[in-house]
Specification:
About 20% of the residues lie in helices and about 25% in strands. The chain is of the alpha+beta class and about 475 residues long. The termini are far apart.
Length: about 475
């Protein structure tokens, strides 16, 4: 191995936020896995390096580094290529023991290697190795641990001071929730608002990422973006925040923009009305509804653009509202039509708003070349349509089933959206998602009739829900 010194990691990557809701501790995870806790003063990141069979690998300087979020949640996996495999670095936070951020290193290769952590102290399950590894000049605070092939180790960053008498190198970490378990918990939180199971998994992950970031980072500043603030608060309430404490916070921002012409003002008023209703404040709900009536006659809905042209700005609420409006606009389902990449693929929408007091859940199952639709409405009933798919179809019942016309010419819609491309940190500039044209078309042929099933039932499962 060629000896070289470890240099400070780059600092221009804002990273992905991790933490625990209900606790104040937060940290950012860089594109190569360094973990930097938030504080008034800049703290050193916990960085890492791998001593593989060939050489030391510094993820901050490696080209073969890949990173993903687990389904858009703040559970981050970073892979670094080493001989015959990968060094896999995972980060997630748990509430256990006052709050811990867990860093797990898996050796996904047939050969053993050593991992070094440096930059700040960590909790370990056993005493670190005191054997000097040649080939790198590690900082004095570095902790080195061997990892056998196809095994893993964990370390952790405590979110507060350790209790007196606790040995930081004898802390049991194996019993903590796994990365997959924590990711499922985050998904359950975001699914309270709505859930979209689409052929374009990147879009669904981007929505989850936006909501998770919002729950950890908080809403955009009301002074910077009043409408974004209201939409952010609306998403927090949909994800489970108590509505009443937020009601007084949205009054000022609404008054500031009531006479404006922002195309997302109607969506913000819907969010505000939902907050007022959930707060039980009938007067506020009535006043907001009147404001919405005045705005609806003044601001026309902008033309919908393809999903791939969406931009994730500093307001997660703006982004989610834009996505949901492309899925359901009022009572019109899929107002842009069926993207060609979705033809023949089953998909579902759950709890997407049709108004401030109603939602709809939709399941699409294909029967030949015709899409069968199952729906269920909650709250105030709306007249459902799918004008861009089957202009003759409509429904006003609480739940039911129908068969849409076979698409004669699928709309060529750009659909390439990923959570990574649409991930930002507070006040960051919006990222520009890549676009990829999808041009597959389907022909309209005869299809068998919809099978005889109970209204609201999913033909591919025992229950719609």
């Amino acid at each position: 191995m060629v000896a070289h010194a470890v240099e400070p990691s780059p600092t221009d990557d804002a990273g992905i936020t991790v933490g625990v809701t209900g606790q104040q501790w937060r940290a950012s995870v860089s594109a190569w896995g360094a973990v930097t806790p938030w504080a008034e003063e800049r703290l050193a990141p916990l960085d890492w390096a791998v001593a593989a069979d060939d050489r030391w690998h510094l993820p901050s300087k490696e080209a073969a580094v890949r990173q993903r979020r687990f389904d858009g949640t703040p559970v981050i996996e970073t892979r670094v290529r080493i001989p015959d495999g990968d060094a896999v670095h995972r980060v997630w936070s748990v509430a256990d023991r006052g709050g811990l951020t867990v860093i797990e290193i898996e050796n996904d290769s047939p050969l053993p290697f050593a991992v070094a952590f440096f930059g700040r102290s960590v909790l370990t399950e056993r005493s670190p190795s005191d054997v000097l590894i040649q080939g790198i000049d590690l900082p004095d605070d570095a902790v080195t641990m061997p990892i056998a092939h196809h095994t893993s180790i964990r370390v952790a960053i405590p979110h507060g001071p350790l209790p007196a008498g606790v040995d930081p190198h004898a802390v049991s970490l194996a019993s903590l929730p796994s990365a997959a378990t924590v990711a499922r918990g985050w998904s359950a939180l975001t699914d309270r608002a709505s859930r979209i199971d689409l052929p374009d998994v990147g879009l669904a992950a981007a929505v989850t990422a936006a909501r998770c970031d919002l729950m950890l980072e908080g809403p955009v500043r009301a002074d910077d973006d009043p409408i974004g603030f209201v939409l952010d608060v609306g998403e927090l309430v949909r994800c489970g925040d108590e509505a009443e404490p937020w009601l007084v916070e949205i009054v000022g921002p609404l008054e500031a923009v009531a006479r404006g012409d922002d195309p997302q003002l109607p969506a913000a008023l819907d969010a505000a009305h939902r907050i007022a209703v959930l707060s039980g404040d009938r007067r506020a709900a009535r006043d907001i509804a009147k404001m919405g009536d005045r705005v609806s006659g003044r601001i026309s809905a902008p033309e919908l653009q393809p999903f791939s042209e969406l931009e994730r700005g500093s307001s997660a609420g703006r982004f989610v509202a834009s996505v949901e409006r492309r899925l359901v606009s009022g009572g019109d389902v899929l107002p842009m039509g069926l993207p060609s990449a979705w033809l023949g693929v089953n998909f579902e929408l759950h709890g997407v708003p049709t108004s401030s007091t109603s939602t709809v859940s939709i399941a699409v199952r294909w029967h030949g070349e015709r899409p069968a639709v199952l729906w269920e409405q909650t709250g105030d009933l709306q007249r459902l349509t799918a004008v861009s798919i089957d202009a003759a179809w409509s429904a006003e019942s609480r739940m039911g089933e129908g068969l849409w016309d076979a698409p004669r010419s699928a709309r060529a819609t750009n659909l390439s959206v990923s959570a990574g491309q649409l991930s930002v940190t507070p006040q960051a500039a919006p990222a520009s998602p890549a676009s990829r044209p999808v041009t597959v078309e389907a022909e309209a042929d005869a299809a068998p009739d919809l099978p005889d099933i109970n209204p609201g039932a999913d033909p591919d499962s025992t229950s719609f829900s």
